[in-house]
Design goal:
The complex is a heterodimer of chains A (362) and B (281). Chain A is of the alpha/beta class. Chain A is built from 13 helices and ten strands. In chain B, the strands form two sheets. Chain B has a six-stranded mixed β-sheet, sandwiched between helices. Chain B has a four-stranded antiparallel β-sheet with strand order 2-1-4-5. Classes of the chains: A alpha/beta (362), B alpha/beta (281).
Chain lengths: 362, 281
């Protein structure tokens, strides 16, 4: 047990934002920790892709994160930062050229990454489910949507056909369809993008999982619809108490929804905090810039005298040529000499606010 | 932006534009659907009009008609005082080509709007190749235009697949600008990009407009975003323009239910953010 607490202590992101008593208890016993609501714990996860030309790209690098039962955790990061790789890695849905170099994903104390495939079938869809980015691609075009939701139930729950059908109707009602009976027989092409995403959500919650991973669930939708989908997810969490890991590039999506946020840049988490902390006082220069952009994006004001948009200079780094030291330093307005020399460890400028930036320590 | 009292002729004038599509199978259940019904628009040179609305409101159909990718069923489109769209048949192929160069379109998805087998140079030079410009001049033009959009000319030999989303959208802009158009039709050109790439492209659009006196027709569902780029906003719903006016006026006092709906989410997000940020006090 002492070995475990030692490794836990090394990773400040792990107990970020837990109240002090919880942090203390983590050091005592695994069992207690479960009782207190830890659901999923990712520890030191590194995922590498091998490209056709033999080049290796580390998409997720030594990442640790904890999700408690019933908690909504937001993963904020721009395209290419490894956030979708992280989502797939938890459910072991990575493509064949991806390789887990190290790390564990403990779900209710069991390592998902080493468990046999047969056991995984009990987890996927039943205990952890995924809301895909593009439901148009995830749904089968030749089956009615009701049948596709029933399929998930059939795979996991011993229900009679009649019960299954009424459960599907209930689910359709729950995700906001007024006339579930009519939607049951509809085909994906007859539904709008927002409706299709609701079907995907109904599938994801059909077996009352403990954790739902939503990978950019709104990025293909119009802005007003995005807000509706997020509101639906919030309602589902309230009613079922399931945990949600929401992945997005838009900070505004997390406001008023997520409990905690982790900010990813180029494969690593650079900062975690409660959503209020992240918006009130972002610590990492990258987070500060993103929050600033998000605030002006929803300001809903007309342009005045060609006021430029605030933006982060430069592009996200090419994952096969990551900059040395802090990966954000070439774009950082506050970079120092040390930033290009080594990667900043996670400092704790405030209790339970780990941030990987040399502004907060050496 | 204050406008002079005596207005010049608009660069783009659209009158009574209508377009219907036929929905259904090849023979059965063929029902005409009206995508655009009687749309009027004016954009003056060097100005930006944002056409906003939800999916299916007909805004992209207007854009495609203006860019001559669709033939309107009814209505007229003048560009630079010529009736361009209405009677193209009377012109020679060469004339039509030159006409078309005055309007260029940039699409939402720079991944699917580019041939992945081409290099950046081939993508940017293609419009000039179609016009029969010789290779050396084409390369010079490509070098100039990629610099204008903030890319390095050294990258011209790279495959388009090596560019990131934001860089590819810059490349798409370069391809549109290489024929020196007067009007750019930007169909959701800022959608689907990361926030910071989106802001960079928005700034680039402002800079290019100032440098070349470009005119933009911006198509988007994101009203708060385009309001910061536009002089005039027109809100579309069900194939019609339901509210239009100067951007500052529309944002200060939106009236139509559809405009309010398009703003509601941003206002909710804004109050969420304010509540979170204000919690510090």
């Amino acid at each position: 047990m002492s070995k475990l607490s030692a490794s836990l202590d090394k990773s400040p992101f792990l107990h970020a934002n837990l109240p002090p008593t919880r942090q203390l208890r983590i050091n005592h016993s695994r069992k207690k920790l479960e009782l207190m609501g830890e659901l999923c714990e990712i520890r030191g996860l590194s995922i590498t892709y091998t490209l056709r030309d033999g080049k290796r790209i580390r998409a997720v690098d030594d990442l640790s994160l904890m999700i408690a039962s019933g908690e909504i955790v937001g993963i904020l990061g721009e395209s290419g930062c490894g956030k979708s790789t992280l989502a797939s890695a938890i459910l072991r849905l990575l493509p064949a050229h991806a390789d887990r170099e190290q790390g564990t994903v403990l779900f209710r104390g069991v390592d998902l990454l080493t468990m046999p495939e047969s056991g995984l079938r009990e987890i996927r869809g039943r205990q952890i489910s995924l809301i895909p980015q593009d439901p148009a691609l995830a749904l089968n075009p030749v089956l009615s949507v009701g049948v596709q939701i029933a399929e998930v139930l059939r795979a996991h729950l011993p229900l009679r056909p009649k019960e299954r059908r009424s459960r599907v109707s209930d689910l359709l009602g729950e995700v906001g369809f007024d006339r579930p009976q009519e939607i049951y027989g509809a085909y994906p092409h007859q539904l709008s993008g927002g409706q299709k995403q609701r079907i995907a959500i109904a599938q994801a919650i059909s077996c009352q999982p403990a954790l739902v991973i939503a990978d950019e669930p709104t990025s293909k939708l119009d802005a007003p619809l995005q807000a509706e989908i997020v509101a639906l997810l919030a309602k589902i969490r309230r009613e079922h108490g399931l945990a949600i890991m929401l992945i997005s590039h838009d900070p505004a999506l997390f406001a008023g929804f997520a409990d905690r946020m982790a900010v990813m840049y180029a494969g690593r988490i650079v900062e975690t905090g409660t959503t209020a902390q992240i918006f009130r006082q972002p610590l990492h220069p990258y987070t500060q810039a993103l929050v600033q952009i998000a605030k002006s994006a929803v300001a809903a004001s007309a342009r005045t005298a060609r006021q430029p948009f605030s933006a982060i200079a430069g592009d996200s780094p090419d994952p096969s040529h990551l900059p040395a030291g802090c990966r954000f330093h070439p774009r950082c307005p506050e970079r120092m000499d040390v930033c290009s020399q080594r990667y900043p460890q996670a400092f704790l400028p405030e209790p339970s606010r780990p941030v990987s930036c040399f502004k907060y320590g050496e | 932006m204050p406008r002079p009292l005596e207005l010049p002729t608009p660069l783009l004038r659209v009158r009574g534009l209508s377009k219907r599509y036929v929905r259904g199978g090849l023979w059965r259940n063929r029902t005409p659907v009206s995508a655009v019904a009687g749309v009027d628009l004016d954009i003056f040179a060097g100005q930006t009009l944002a056409l906003v609305g939800e999916s299916g409101s007909g805004k992209s159909t207007v854009a495609r008609c203006v860019a001559r990718l669709e033939k309107p069923d009814q209505g007229q489109i003048w560009i630079d005082t010529d009736i361009d769209a209405a009677e193209p048949a009377r012109r020679s192929a060469r004339e039509r080509l030159l006409q078309r160069n005055r309007v260029q379109m940039v699409f939402q998805d720079p991944v699917t709007s580019m041939n992945p087998r081409l290099t950046a140079a081939q993508v940017v030079e293609e419009p000039l190749k179609i016009m029969g410009v010789d290779a050396r001049l084409r390369r010079d033009a490509a070098r100039t235009v990629v610099n204008e959009v903030g890319l390095s000319a050294d990258w011209l030999e790279r495959s388009v697949m090596e560019f990131s989303g934001g860089q590819r959208q810059r490349l798409a802009l370069a391809r549109a600008l290489v024929v020196r158009p007067r009007l750019l039709v930007l169909d959701e050109a800022l959608t689907g990009l990361d926030l910071s790439a989106q802001a960079q492209i928005a700034n680039l659009l402002l800079d290019l407009q100032a440098a070349h006196k470009l005119t933009y027709l911006l198509i988007s569902h994101d009203l708060p975003l385009v309001a910061r780029l536009a002089d005039t906003i027109a809100v579309m719903s069900g194939g019609r323009i339901v509210e239009t006016g100067p951007a500052f006026e529309m944002m200060a006092s939106p009236k139509h239910a559809e405009t309010l709906r398009l703003l509601a989410w941003a206002r909710a997000a804004q109050s969420n953010l304010a509540a979170l940020s204000g919690a510090s006090a």
